[in-house]
Design brief:
The protein is mainly β and about 50 residues long. The protein has one domain. A 4-stranded antiparallel β-sheet has the order 1-2-3-4, with no helix packed on it. β2 and β3 form a beta hairpin. The longest helix is centred in the N-terminal third of the chain and has 4 residues. It is elongated. The two termini are about 20 Å apart.
Length: about 50
């Protein structure tokens, strides 16, 4: 895993199919998806419930 191999505290990743609206943040304690929607004039980012 990149966290151990490169001695990092956090890794931010995305998948090709969802790269425009979802990223995944991985730490040693958790993995969290963050979604990004463009709904109106401003952008909104949210943390969906796990």
């Amino acid at each position: 895993m990149a966290l151990k191999r490169y001695k990092m505290h956090m890794v931010v990743a995305n998948e090709l199919l969802t790269h425009k609206y979802e990223i995944v943040v991985v730490t040693s304690n958790e993995k969290r998806s963050i979604l990004h929607y463009k709904t109106q004039v401003g952008d909104v980012a949210e943390n969906p419930p796990n």
